[in-house]
Structures are given as C-alpha cells and as structure tokens.
Model the fold of this input.
Amino acid sequence: MSTAREAKPKPQHKLTLSEVLDWMQMDGMVTADKAELLRGLDSRGAYKDRHPLLILGKRGWNDERPPHAPLTVEFLSAWLATRTGLPYARIDPLKLDVQRITSVVSLPYASRYNVLPVEVTPREITFAVADPYPQEWEREIEQVQKKKIKKVFTNPEDIARYLVEFYSISRSVMGAEKQNE
Done:
C-alpha cells in the first residue's frame, strides 16, 4: 500500500477520527462528503472514546481507489501503519510466550493504554499499539524495565481481544502452578 505522504506522529497526542479522515482524503480513499458526514457525527459526540479505525471499519465503505477494496479494520490498520511509519504486525498467539509478555505490565495498565507486549528480549520489549503517537507509558516502561521500547501497529480489535485472552491464560497457568506446589 503506498501513501501520498507519511504522517509523522506527534508527541502526547491521541489519534483522532478527524486526522484519519484527513489522511484518507489526501490518499483518495474517501470522498469529502463521506468524511464530512463522519466529522459531523463525531463533533456531536456519536463516537466518544471509540478508536477511529473501529468507527471507519464498521461503515461498510469501499476504498475510492481501484480496485475499491473494502475499508475493513484490518485493511485500515495496515494502511495506517504505513501512513505513520510504524511496522505493521498481526498478532499470532501461537508464536508468543504468553507468560513472559504478560509479566511486563499488568492487565489494567495495558488496557488503559490499549497496548499489548508481544515480544521480550534482554534489551527490548515490543508492544503492539493501536495509536501511533508516543505516549507517557513508553517512558514509564523503559524506566521500570530498563529496556528499549519498540512499537508495531496492530489492528485495535486484535489488541482488545488478545489482552483479555492472554492475561486470562496467564492467570490460569499461575493458579495451576500454585496448586502444584
């Protein structure tokens, strides 16, 4: 997927529906009429606290550019990763060390920032993120864990689903280990 121009993330800024719509218009993915319709609904609070890609991916729209692919959350996630300069990653639960990644941060902390650790090495922790912008959690984790933070952009639906699944599995394994002691 190529984009007209790469957007540079701004510090301490939460991704907004309006800016995603601006980028989609710049890239020729949506018409001005569609973008304005959503901006109007958003300004009246219709989408309060919902991720922009979830809002857009549920509209049932097709890309205005040939071959007019459906603008699904997955498609938009890959596009936004490219647009913001982050690597795109799909979470493969079979390739993850659930116990290790869930030991990095608590479920409430990960949920608060909508992030999911997906890889831990001696020097680095890779987090799947649904917001490309730098956040306060990055500095906090670097200070606590004494490791560099790497981010990959991931479908926000996957992050939400795997947060619950991985931390539930981790709790179950820890409970079973305590019973066997």
